[in-house]
Amino acid sequence: MINIKPPYLGCAYYPEDWPVEEIEKDAAKMKATGIQVARIAEFAWSRMENTEGVFTFDWLHNVVDTLAKYGIATVMGTPTATPPIWLSRKYPDVLMEQEHGRRAQHGGRRHCCSNNEHYREYSARIVEKMAQEFADDENVIGWQIDNEIYAFGKGCMCPVCAEKFRQHLKEKFKTVDALNKAWNLTIFSQEYNFFDEIPLPRDAWVNPHHNMEWRIFQQESIVEFVTMQAEILKKYVKVPVGTDVMPVNGMNYLHMNKKLDIVQFNHYNNPDNLNHCSFWFDFLRNVKDRPFWNTETSTCWNGSVNIPQTVKPEGFCYANSWLPIALGGEANMYWLWRTHWGGHEIMHGSVLDACGRPMHIYNEVKKIAKDYQRAGYFLNHTNVTTPIAIHYPSHSWNFFETQGIVQGFNYQNSVIQNYYDPIVQRGLRPDVLEAAQDFSKYKVLFTPFVPSLENEGLGERIRKWVENGGVWVVGPMTDNRNIDGARYKDRPFGMLEEFLGVRWAYAVPDLKDEIKCKWASGQPFTSRLWYELYEKDADALATVSEAPHSALVGKAVAIKKKVGKGVVFLLGTIPSADVMRSNILPLALDAAGLSTGHVGDSSNLMVARREGHGMTGVVVVEYQGKPARYTLDKPAVELITAHKLEGTIDIKPYQVLVLQE
Predict the structure, then answer these.
(1) Helix, strand or coil for residue 163?
(2) Domain containing residue 537
(3) What is the C-alpha separation between 199 and 178, in angstroms, rounded?
(4) Which residues contact residue 557 at a Cβ distance below 8 angstroms, ignoring those fewer than 6 apart?
(5) Is position 405 within any domain?
């Protein structure tokens, strides 16, 4: 049995690419580099079952054994993303039907319908055969189901999906009359008399509620497909089972991971948006009660037959590889070990190039492997802690995909740029939460751009939390729709007016940046795009000072209310990052009795406070390629270098410090 400990440094490896003699050479090079884990088999169905019902696993056993010979563990992938040609020739209906009505063709990946009974049957069979083969292999330390599975666009629109969607609607709405009322189908004479009359959402100006429900149905169908595989694997294997997801939130990742053991995540960020992957790490570490695996990132660039990025600065690979570990993960794995010598992704970055020679980032990878182990004990026995959380529900993602509210609004970018980044830039660390997750332990909660607080009973749960002492920063674009994405007929909000004792006046777009707001002190309150305005209020923090229409001037855009033992900051507009960082965030933190962060330190640092097993400390990652300064709360030992540090320290571009206090 292989004896390795996290943090794991790993890579994807495709032995089906290479002659047998090359596999041993690659394994030896992996060991020399410091690689501990290899992900294999995720696209190799045709190597395992080239002819229907004839299974060949000897070659795969040889790969696992060869890797183990060099101390490298295996994460085994199920190959259902790439079924062999004989399956689609025998059952052409397994191929997904695209929005324009044509079937996908064999030759890529994820081209089959996850609801199709033939695809499910043969997928279940290959998964079970693999599980039986490798269940007792101690060199396999985990399983990955499929690959980057997600219903992009509108997913599959085949007859099977159409029928299952109608059944989904029956189960949710019970009667077609209830559906007609929920979606307001008297408009345009859209009313249906029977569920089987409901068309697929294409080739028309489709009702937005129809579109949203279809998207949710497609994602839940994928959850079912992954859950089916997990249930098969768990009959045989005893090691963690997961599926490697991508940074798109239309799928409810709580639902996806409910029957899985470990969250697995793939990302390909560059120097301009490295904060985006950190946002996702802050989200995913809360999905399961164990560290996640970052199953894919690039050493240098991604790409298929051409490279869409320029060469990244020295140190980027190092910082990028540290972020998942700093923020709650226990593994970082590269895609891929060795560039494919031909095929779809012939130009993708890797550790070795196609001829087996090191890429330019090779020494960074070796350093990462060594430094993981130097800080390993502290990292393995502590967890990221924070009193701050931000809501980021999948229901909101699907809503904004089908109802944008105002042109130019991007849900994820607005959450990150206007809420998440300002918190991080003060040296603080937020958890990012789905609607169903418990938030009782947090002292400050941000709920921006969550149209329906009916989702998972969120509104009533927040009401009780605030009354018991929580500090809530809410809005804009929050609580203005019901669970189906429709507006309330008798009030502008589900609960906010009644809960806070405010009165909504108007909501207006501002695509020309003509509306100006100011704090009660007279200082500018910079904001953008959308304004939910309230009647004059004694507790107003900011109001409209200039506008194209006089009816808007003087209306409140930010209000502070004391509710029970708690405090609510109601925002009617999208605050600028500076207003959030310099004004709103300090007000909320002060109301909660929390430190307002490292105000004098550089804003280009990811800081994660960690605690556990009697140890405390922080991990600091410079992520923008610039010099920085950081002030330690207490003297600490930097575990990578073993240096003792205190006071204010200078940090180099892309430097990482693991500071045990």
Answers:
(1) helix
(2) 388-591
(3) 17
(4) 517, 525, 527, 531, 532, 533, 534, 542, 543, 544, 571, 572, 573
(5) yes
Can you tell me which residue has the tokens 């050493």?
A: 299
In this structure, are 625 and 529 located in the same domain? no
Q: 284-318 as b/e, with b when 16 or more CB fall inside 10 Å? A: bbbbbeebbbbbbbbbbbbeeeeeeeeebeebbbb
Q: Identify which of 283, 148, 129, 131 has the alpha carbon closest to the alpha carbon of residue 222.
A: 148
Task: Check whether residue 497 and residue 574 sit in a common domain.
Answer: yes
pLDDT for the residue numbered 379:
98
For residue 408, is it within any domain? yes
The residues that bridge with 648 in the sheet, in sequence order, are 631
Cβ–Cβ under 8 Å, residues 125 and 86 = no
Residues whose CB falls within 8 Å of the CB of residue 470, separated by 6 or more in sequence, listed in order: 442, 443, 444, 445, 462, 566, 592
Question: Quick one: 640 and 544 in the same domain?
Answer: no
515 and 636 both lie in a single domain: no
Q: CA 384, CA 83: separation in Å to the nearest integer?
A: 40
The order of strands in the sheet holding 615-622 is 383-384, 605-612, 615-622, 656-660, 636-638, 643-645
Could you give the number of structural domains in the chain?
2
- Beta strand segments in 243-336, E: 244-245, 264-266, 292-297, 329-334
| Residue 30 C-beta-side C-alpha neighbours within 13 Å | 32
Question: What pLDDT sits at residue 601?
Answer: 84
C-beta of residue 531 within 8 angstroms of C-beta of residue 573: yes
524 and 621 inside one domain: no
Hey, CA dihedral for 93, 94, 97, 102, is it positive or negative?
A: negative
Residue 291 tokens, joined:
């560290």
Give the model's pLDDT for residue 596.
83
Backbone phi, psi, residue 112, to 5°:
-110, 160
Last residue of a domain, one of 569, 591, 613: 591
Give the model's pLDDT for residue 489.
Answer: 96
Please identify every stretch of the chain with a pLDDT value under 50, giving residue numbers as ranges.
none
Q: How far apart are CA 615 and CA 612, in angstroms?
A: 5
Does residue 491 fall inside a structural domain? yes
pLDDT at 600: 74
